[in-house]
Amino acid sequence: MEKHGSCGPGYKTPLDAMKGPREEIVYLPCIYRNTGIQKPDYLATVDVDPKSPTYCQVIHRLPMPNLNDELHHSGWNACSSCFGDTTKKRNRLIFPSLISSRIYVIDTGTDLRAPRIHKIVEPYELYWKCNLANPHTTHCLGDGNIMISTMGDPSGNGKGGFALLDGKTFEVKGNWEKPGHSAPQGYDFWYQPRHNVLMSTEWGFPKYLAYGFDPADLKKGRYGRRINVWDWTTHALTQSLDLGEDSIPLEIRFLHNPAAAEGFVGCALSSAIHRFYKTETGTWAEEKVIQVPSKKVKGWQLPDMPGLITDILLSLDDRFLYFSNWIHGDLRQYDISNPRKPKLVGQVFLGGSITKGGPVTVLEDPELDCQPDPFVIQGKRVQGGPQMIQLSLDGKRLYVTTSLYSAWDKQFYPDMVKEGSVMLQVDVDTHKGGLKVNKKFLVDFGKEPHGPVLAHELRYPGGDCSSEIWL
Question: Do residues 18 and 393 touch, judged by C-beta distance below 8 A?
């Protein structure tokens, strides 16, 4: 649990954060959209304390008052970017809805284990004040504002902009980006004031990806391909790094060390990791440093099956990079001591589309000798593949969920939609590298009171590897 003392929220440095207390509970959204169950999404609180009598159980559920929001990613009202400001507290979880464009402000400060709704920002606020919609990533800013990236305009076309919320009232204040400087598409972002930069990525046009993935949309420019570079001071879009038509760059992570002028982005469809970095002239460039090869298959939607890198994470000491291949079904750990030459040191299969005995036959595989066995834990066969990941502060435990986004879940893993997603935990060797599933840990969201549900992104009450930015 994070202690609010004389220093304000978060930790002074990433290495200080690694010495923080062990996680005891995790928050994660549970989604009913596209499952056939007409219930609102809810925020689940899961007990992850092995000493607790309710270990691996959902101990609280906070339902939203609306249907079909598609809760997705969340962020804090205050984090380590506010360290040193004693007027700030990490006590509100900001939860944008990907499809409805509603933003929920959740009070976690009154009762950490039983969050409640503090405020609802209705979609028209975002539409009218910003001409933006489909909010995605939330980061708090050191100045007390909250910034949320968006994927579209109110008509569902691609538009990469940023809405600012007041950190006290949670009113929508307007756009962060300079007028006329929105990006063609949007998704995730990370900022680094020491280098006067904000980097954002692109997923796709909300009105097309809302119903599933159609490869024909790639050729029509409806999916993202760029890292967009913004001037942190002037809020102007200054550069775009094109990663290719089939890239779809999703999660972007700077190294945690705020002096570092580099980081990584995971490209879903091209199944590549690109390193981005500042050049000697002060501009930004990128290079591909990891490529997960496609597998030649039959019995699947396409003859070439990509890994589909959907989430990436960096350990707080910037030693390891983790990512999930949602379609192939493996979770990977790379040593990035040399960021230009990442070295694979850990890999574990947790489901996926190429398991033995399924509809898919692998014809050619540059990496594996045979198809992996289905993943079974505590008697349950896991449907879907590893997707959202969150690392413990000390880097020793990796938590994983299997749902990507309800429309794509329904298309690629219909059995997971019927049976519910799961949350797993993988033990990490932080010395030599290595991943091993903790067989004692399973949260089965197929057994929820109102029926199977799709659980997504993981957050700790005290901050984590993807919520914290150091200035």
Answer: yes
